[in-house]
Amino acid sequence: MAEFLGGRTxxxxxxxxxxxxxxxxxxxxRRGGGPFGAAVFERDSGRLVAPGVNQVLALRTSLAHxxxxxxxxxxxxxxxxxxxxxxxPACELVTSTExxxxxxxxxxxxxxxxxxxxxxxxxxxxxxxxxxxxxxxWVGELTRRGIAVVRDLLRDEARAVLxxxxxxxxxxxxxxxxxxx
Length: 181
Ligand SMILES: [Zn+2]
Prior knowledge:
By secondary structure, the chain is of the alpha/beta class. The protein is 41% helix and 15% strand. It is built from 8 helices and 5 strands. Strands 2-1-3-4-5 form a 5-stranded mixed β-sheet. Helix 5 links the parallel strand 3 and strand 4. Helix 2 runs parallel beside helix 8 and helix 4 packs parallel to helix 5. Bound molecules: zinc ion. Zinc ion binds next to helix 5.
């Protein structure tokens, strides 16, 4: 993705940041990956800390969702397992689709202070992905833990990437039950 991101200036508003992440999702799908993108930004400066795309298939691991890839990379770049410490500028996660249950948990542990979201879980589930058993009040839970939540930004643009992936016959993957169970 380095050449894809090359030459861009750091986006400075939510929509700009999300649009970059939706572009990442679209580019990931075009290259045969999952149709999901995410990135960690410095919340106040808008500086891009780490991009991530879904690499479940490429890395052969169920863990490599876009949000996880972005968080892991950001923590390595910042040299801290906790992006919420005072020595690290406040970070936010921007993601093309609502976090699944795995990414929801990772988000809580990551130390990010804000999350900005495009498509809803219903949009991912409408094409066959499974978001898992997140708590009903997941937004309230994040808010109580000091993570601000912005949802439904550019939802139509984000959903269009998912719909295009489905129309193109993109592979679906996720949790069980499996046919053999
Ligand atoms: Zn996920």
